[in-house]
Amino acid sequence: MIEIFQERIRQAAARRAALRLRGGGTKDFYGNAPRGEILDTRAYAGIVAYEPTELVVTARCGTPLAQLEKILEEHHQCLPFEPPHFGAAATVGGCVAAGLSGPRRASAGALRDFVLGLKLLDGRGEALGFGGQVMKNVAGYDVSRLVAGALGTLGVIAEVSLKLAPQPQSEGTLRLEMPQARALEAMNRWAGQPLPISATAWHDGELTLRLSGSAAGVRAAAAKIGGAAIDAAFWTGMREQSDAFFSGSEPLWRLALPSTAPPLNLPGRELVEWGGALRWLKSSADAGAIRDAARRLKGHATLFRAADKSAGCFAPLEPVLARVHRELKSAFDPAGIFNPGRLYPEL
Amino acid sequence: MGAALPVVRALREFLPARAVLHQEEDTRPYECDGLTAYRQLPMVVALPETEEQVQRVLKTCSSMKIPVVPRGAGTGLSGGALPPGDGVLLSMAKFMRVLRIDPLARVAVVQPGVRNAVVSELAAPFGLYYAPDPSSQIACTIGGNVAENSGGVHCLKYGLTLHNVLGLRGFTIDGEPIELGGAAPDAPGYDLLALAVGSEGMLVVVTEVTLKLLPKPQSARVIMASFDDVERAGAAVADVIAAGIVPAGLEMMDRPATRAVEQFVAAGYDLEAAAILLCESDGTPEEVEDEIARMKAVLERAGATRMTVSHDEAERLRFWSGRKAAFPAVGRISPDYYCMDGTIPRKRLGEVLAFIAAMEQKYRLRCPNVFHAGDGNLHPLILFDANDPEELHRTELFAAEVLEKCVEVGGTITGEHGVGVEKINQMCVQFRPAELELFHAVKRAFDPRGLLNPGKAVPTLARCAEYGRMRVHGGKLPHPDLPRF
């Protein structure tokens, strides 16, 4: 199968014809409009190696994410970054290429933190290996993590090795009434204390927290924090954006900010996650105004879901960073065939 | 004669004379880092104090096409800060200020010359700490940690430098300001922050680092477990992980290592055991009590012959003191030692230790082992005498064979010390030419003329071809007794 992909890449490179790398298509909405002939990664699927005692799994790009998670669950393990699926067809390759993390991001880390290595098909059709299956590895530049979240613009992620974590022994979800400014202060203060908080979300006067850890630790933290217990299904609604907050036709903005940044006070509805570091905004306000507000707060704004993406999905880069991006793109993909324009128009 | 060097004159236009060293007696202390087998006198040493001075040093050198090698405390073990004989060693030693600690945001903003241990000391009044703790933490600097992606004994649970750095500020070789990451998560575009961490000072010069601080665990206890067989100790490590436990630290030392250490620090190790494990739990007192009980049960089933749990903080630190002092302790029982840094999948531990034992016979050299068992990172220490060139040569061959064995079992030639100049030949074994070419292209994206720390970490293809001609099949040299370089 890899040889078939390589051949397609070589032919596309020779013709300088765009290839649209695609798994289950669940993230077609994300990034600037995809274009090019589809290279469907689902044909290359399956778990290559899984050693529960090594806390590492290696999977092919086309492996359904749900299938991988089910196998991990059988061994009481999980992907610590709790990736969103955005549909039953989500694949492991698409998950890593999109680089999106879920509710556990603030406590466990981002997707890229758990990428140990990958096999990449570059724009010449070469199969290249970076990183490996071990947790500590500083041989060569960290290309694996560079490729994670690059939206397929640097190559086809053929296989990826991910670090795993054991599932928490015990979990509980609590809800407290609290205005936004107080909730931001509380989330930051609690995060500085040895409490097993694994997810947070604030919306419309309600702060929801998830505790994960040993049964004794979760019980002690719940007693300290207070609030009412609610169903853990709430977090699926956050992760998959099936919660009512995410409905409606206004554009959905994703603002990444320092966790202590004050409430946005932009027009629209707001939902806070990741201890204050992630602010979802449903708003028809001007893109420039939203990007400026994020920049003033030392963060950045992504146009996450919208019918009109003419403002560009991702915050523009400083000139020196833009130049490094272009140089890296041409090093990995000299003919510019992989997902052109998906991340930035010039990549 | 040195003052006549054009680069010295150019640097003295904006740096005071004491910050531009070129006389041999001044530059001699910079001739090597922690890997003392490689030495080179730098042409010039520059010691800027401000970001603007760093920028001007870089602009001056890049316009004169002079190589620049950044340096922190010089504790690196792979020669990453080996100076350029024809260039400027850029010491960041004067960048010693902690600029800001924000306890609510749990962030510390520091200059690169700040020592690792200082960050945790200053964060302690807020109940916070900086997690990565390389053994050299009282001396090594944050800038060096960023360059090498340093680990420590707690990375299985808390990650490497990469996982604990939020942002970097610095300059490209051409003196352009560059900012990667920041206090806000998931910076737009490619993850250049991840690329820069561990890049061995070859992509950017860092002048400011934003670090993540974590709440200090309320309590921590460590189990010292003895095993009468090294492989059984390795299997016990896998059993702990399989039980769904992620220990805060999980270290192994074999008997030659514990015996060397015990003479040096009296840590209270069981010297009859073939290997000991140090297995730590941290968290709230309830969590620790629960986890220690679970770990003890697993270790017991795995065949531990003796177990001692630390009763108080003093005893816990004493158990760790031996592990942290392992390198200097070994330094006392041998004129010199050579520290390796391979990482392997844990399940291959028995095989690799047997291989190392065979190499001890083959090269007639002793090799105690300390091992970050939780994350598969081995530090075999070959004992030798550097005054005997033939013994040094055997040591290098021994090390090369072990590192290549690590690659063969699916691991890597360096877990946390970096490639530097030391392991550059083994890069040819771990990576294929197309992969090495891509690394060179990554470097060119930041440094098109190859002036920043040139010749380190990534070998040229010509060098690999030469190394390939020297090696024959199976990693054995055709005439192992002939000196090579």
Task: Report on this structure.
The complex is a heterodimer of chains A (347) and B (485). In chain A, 27% of the residues lie in helices and 25% in strands. Chain A is α+β, with helices and mostly antiparallel strands. Chain A has an 8-stranded antiparallel sheet with strand order 13-10-12-11-15-16-14-17. Chain A has a 5-stranded antiparallel sheet with strand order 3-4-8-6-7. In chain A, a hairpin with a 2-residue loop joins strand 11 (197-203) and strand 12. The model of chain A has no long low-confidence stretch (mean pLDDT 97). With 485 residues, chain B is of the alpha+beta class. Helix content of chain B is 37%, strand content 19%. Chain B has helices at 6-12, 24-27, 51-63, 116-123, 142-148, 155-158, 161-164, 192-196, 230-242, 255-265, 285-301, 313-324, 326-333, 349-363, 389-408, 424-430, 433-446, 461-470, and strands at 20-21, 44-46, 68-71, 88-91, 98-102, 107-110, 128-129, 165-171, 177-181, 205-212, 214-215, 219-227, 249-254, 275-283, 306-309, 336-339, 369-372, 377-384. In chain B, strands 15-12-14-13-17-18-16 form a 7-stranded antiparallel sheet. Chain B has a 5-stranded antiparallel sheet with strand order 5-6-10-8-9. In chain B, strands 1-2-4-3 form a 4-stranded mixed sheet. Chain B is globular, with a radius of gyration of 23 Å. The two termini of chain B are 31 Å apart. Mean pLDDT of chain B is 93; it is low at 472-485. At the A-B interface, strand 7, helix 5, strand 9, helix 6 and helix 7 of A face strand 9, helix 8, helix 9, helix 11 and helix 17 of B.
Overall helicity of chain A: 25-40%
- Assembly form of the protein: heterodimer
Placed side by side, the strands forming the largest sheet of chain A appear as 13-10-12-11-15-16-14-17
Q: What spatial order of strands do you see in the largest sheet of chain B?
A: 15-12-14-13-17-18-16
Radius of gyration of chain B: 23 Å
Question: Which structural class do the helices and strands of chain B define?
Answer: alpha+beta
Query: What fraction of the residues of chain A are assigned to beta strands by DSSP?
Result: 25-35%
Q: Which geometry of chain A do the CA atoms define?
A: globular
Strand content of chain B: 15-25%
**Total count of helical runs of at least 4 residues of chain B:** 18
Which pair of protein chains has the largest interface, and what are the residue counts?
A: A-B, 82 and 94 residues
**What's the count of strands of chain A?**
17
